[in-house]
Specification:
The structure holds two protein chains of two kinds.
Chain A (H helix, E strand, L loop, with lengths): L2 H21 L2 H21 L10 H30 L2 H6 L5 H29 L8 H28 L3 H6 L1 H6 L15 H9 L1 H13 L6 H27 L3
Chain B lengths: L2 E12 L2 E12 L3 E5 L6 H8 L7 E6 L2 E2 L4 H7 E4 L11 H11 L5 H11 L15 H13 L5 E5 L7 H16 L3 E5 L3 H7 L2 E6 L2 E6 L1 H5 L5 E3 L2 E3 L3 H9 L8
Parallel strand pairs in B: 3-8, 3-9, 6-7, 7-8
Antiparallel strand pairs in B: 1-2, 1-4, 4-5, 9-10, 11-12
Helix pairs in contact in B: 3-4, 3-5
Classes of the chains: A mainly alpha, B alpha/beta.
Bound molecules: adenosine-5'-triphosphate and magnesium ion (MG).
Chain lengths: 254, 254
């Protein structure tokens, strides 16, 4: 099967699953609603009591909220894939001369697009709430790049339950810990305020370095090593999730 | 080479349950073979192996001259599968489903192909409605129509008319006859013995993991002595033959 074929098949299947998203725009909105609610809650209710050292709290909070947006958004990707498996669509496609990889990439590309739309919605609300950034084009591109990498990594992770789940509840369950992880990171409060072991965990888990890198880029601070640590975490996660997903896919073929 | 489907010694077990225990089949080009068997006899298993969805434990199978295990890509390019349960995209409309199939089969005039099939399967009125609103029978018709896109030389139909009303069943029969007339090879499984009588050039009965009889309807009838009713010789029906060879208990070995 030529690479040209694979690209064409993927494009068609991306078109198909984007249509699914367009026909249920509520999935994009629902993905954005919870993070927006958190943004409102933390900025207007709890934010007054949180000391982040001078900065606007909404600006401090936004990067973590964006990661939560993606973490909850990929649940819909898992759900769409699960639906394809359980309705027999996957079998139909697999009995056709379609590039093997196209079906998964169709869902993955759609996931990135849908999640970025949700992310933009959240950023717009943050702007209304007083978020401001003087970051230049390059810094914004870096922010977008890290978010895309993060989305890709979590999407490939979402492929696994999408392929293997036996019930609808089982499909989305995997995203709860992902949504929870930012709470034990520098996303909401500086890690210095946490007790020893919790602080150690927070400082060594991926969300903190990703949040720190995004925050530095948005507030025009030197990014330092957090940037590379963030990219390394995202790439590492991506590779592990990709290999896991593809193996799962192959295993379900036999 | 005159066989469109050639199967020899095919074996498949789940745990220690040998579902297929040496299946031999030969389907000449342009003919229709009906595969009969009780529930759980392994009909779907045969179809899934021949359409590359499932790997056999042993034996050989070629479809359109290609080895199912060694050249799955070429096999997929030669076949089309209508699985036992309708595999249609519920979010898309009927027309969009057909257009998607046509594009994935790399046809140039996807719109026309879709239009023709919608007409043939009496789905024109519902063409631009989402499939989620279709009745079970309409879905099944769309499902079969999707399998016909691109005129594949070998067609697998796993219980194609289960759940269809008499008119739709007659329409599917007419389509199968037409396809066979134009050289398509069809392997169909069915629970309706009259369907096999109507459509099949040859009939095979799968029982306890093997093909226990195979032949034309006339040949199968010769297995039973003709019943003499009021001095008029009555030909035995396929149902009588079936029950005689599998035993009237009818259950596969479980
Ligand atoms: N994944 C599986 N794991 C274990 N057993 C299986 C699996 N798939 C099928 N079987 C068993 O294989 C046997 C044959 O199943 P198959 O679906 O091929 O039968 P069938 O002839 O198509 O029956 P039906 O007429 O009910 O559609 C059954 O006993 C079934 O329980
Ligand atoms: Mg079956």
């Amino acid at each position: 099967m030529s690479a040209g074929h694979a690209v064409r098949d993927t494009r068609r299947l991306v078109g198909r699953s984007l249509r699914h998203v367009l026909r249920s725009p509520d999935t994009i909105i629902t993905t954005a609603v919870t993070p927006i609610a958190m943004l409102l809650l933390f900025v207007y209710v709890l934010g007054g009591a949180i000391d982040v050292g001078g900065a606007e709290y909404v600006t401090y909070l936004l990067p973590g909220i964006l990661l939560i947006t993606v973490a909850s958004g990929v649940a819909y990707t898992a759900f769409r894939l699960f639906t394809d498996v359980s309705t027999g669509i996957v079998e139909r496609f697999r009995s056709m001369a379609i590039a093997r990889s196209a079906l998964l990439w169709g869902h993955v590309v759609t996931s990135v697009v849908a999640n970025l739309v949700s992310v933009v919605l959240v950023v717009l609300v943050a702007l209304l709430m007083g978020f401001r950034s003087g970051a230049g084009v390059l810094a914004w591109l870096a922010v977008a790049g890290i978010l895309v990498l993060f989305t890709l990594a979590l999407t490939w992770l979402a492929v696994v339950p999408g392929l293997t789940a036996t019930t609808v509840d089982g499909v989305s369950g995997f995203s709860y810990p992902l949504v929870f992880l930012p709470f034990v990171s520098s996303a909401f409060v500086p890690t210095e305020s946490m007790p020893g072991p919790v602080r150690w965990f927070a400082e060594h888990q991926p969300v903190t370095s990703i949040v720190d890198a995004l925050r530095a880029l948005l507030t025009e601070q030197p990014v330092g090593s957090a940037g590379w640590t963030a990219v390394a975490w995202c790439l590492g996660l991506l590779v592990v999730a990709y290999v896991w997903a593809v193996r799962t896919y192959r295993r379900t073929v036999s | 080479m005159t066989s469109a489907i050639a199967v020899a010694g095919l074996r498949k077990s789940y745990g220690d349950h040998a579902v297929l225990d040496g299946v031999d089949l030969d389907v000449p080009r342009g003919t229709v073979l009906a595969l009969l068997g009780s529930n759980g006899a392994g009909k779907t298993t045969v179809v899934r192996i021949l359409s590359t969805l499932l790997r056999a434990d042993g034996g050989t199978a070629t479809v359109n001259g290609f080895d199912v295990a060694g050249q799955p890509e070429q096999v997929r390019g030669s076949i089309s599968l209508t699985g036992q349960f309708a595999a249609v995209d519920q979010v898309l409309t009927g027309r969009e489903n057909l257009v998607l199939m046509a594009r994935l089969r790399h046809l140039d005039d996807a719109g026309r192909v879709a239009g023709d099939l919608l007409t043939r399967f009496d789905l024109t009125d519902a063409a631009d409605r989402r499939v989620a609103t279709y009745s079970g029978g309409m879905r099944r018709r769309l499902d079969i129509a999707m399998s016909l896109v691109g005129d594949p030389p070998v067609l697998f139909l796993d219980e194609p008319t289960t759940g269809l009303d008499p008119q739709s069943r007659t329409a599917v029969w007419a389509t199968v006859r037409e396809l066979a007339g134009s050289g398509t090879t069809v392997l169909l499984t069915t629970q309706y013995l009259d369907e096999a009588e109507q459509l099949a050039d040859r009939i095979a009965i799968l029982h306890r993991g093997r093909i226990i009889v195979e032949g034309t309807l006339a040949e199968l009838r010769r297995l039973l002595p003709p019943a003499t009713v009021e001095h008029v010789e009555k030909q035995s029906t396929l149902e009588e033959v079936f029950l005689a060879v599998v035993g009237s208990g009818g259950q596969a070995g479980r």
